[in-house]
Write a structure and sequence with these properties.
single chain, alpha/beta, Rossmann fold, eight-stranded mixed beta sheet, two-stranded parallel sheet, disordered N terminus
């Protein structure tokens, strides 16, 4: 579960600004620099078996997901939460937290980036399909497509993983990132269980 200690702001003044409530903005404006938030790796979900090595690539994502912005969608309209941003581009963050989630639930030596597992027998490739707040339904939505690609080339398994978590209160940087972090942890656990032997 998300904890207040998991939220990493760069400066106390920025954190106070985020807690004070912010408007949904479609662009950048003046004023204080935005607070910066991180994602959390899932833990305490039990150990998972599985042998061999698995290289986890950085997820593919189109704009606006491939950015540091916190996305809010209302119908066909896309905007962004003012006063807050992710600590890195989402694909890089999700890759790091997915690897850590594998480490928290299985043998550490079996998973890593392609650069550290050059001889891995399989690769986990993924795509961020949704990582946003649905303002109409007041929920955080995370959807990731994952594929297991063997070293010889063929895709041997593929699946779409999705989670939704309600946003508590008004949509601001704090409530949005809290709900999105919880949703992505649920999705990461689903992916780890699937990739570690529960594929079907």
């Amino acid at each position: 579960m998300w904890k207040a200690s998991d939220m990493r702001a760069l400066h106390p003044a920025r954190l106070a600004f985020a807690f004070g409530g912010v408007l949904l903005l479609a662009g950048c404006g003046g004023g204080p620099a935005p607070a910066t938030f991180d994602l959390s790796a899932a833990r305490d979900f039990g150990r998972i078996g599985g042998g061999g090595q698995l290289a986890v690539t950085e997820p593919v994502a189109l704009q606006p997901i491939n950015s540091e912005r916190i996305i809010v969608r209302q119908g066909a309209s896309v905007s962004f939460v003012g006063g807050g941003q992710w600590s890195d581009k989402l694909p890089a963050l999700v890759q790091a937290r997915l690897i850590q989630t594998f480490e928290n639930g299985s043998r550490i030596a079996t998973v890593g980036r392609p650069s550290t597992l050059a001889n891995a027998g399989a690769m986990l490739a993924s795509e961020l399909r949704a990582f946003e707040i649905d303002a109409t339904r007041q929920v955080a939505v995370v959807e990731i497509t994952a594929r297991i690609v063997q070293a010889s080339g063929p895709v041997t398994a593929a699946r779409i993983f999705r989670a939704e978590v309600p946003v508590n209160g008004a949509i601001d940087a704090v409530s949005a990132t809290r709900a999105l972090d919880e949703a992505q942890q649920q999705v990461l656990v689903q992916i780890v269980r699937w990739a570690s032997g529960g594929r079907r």
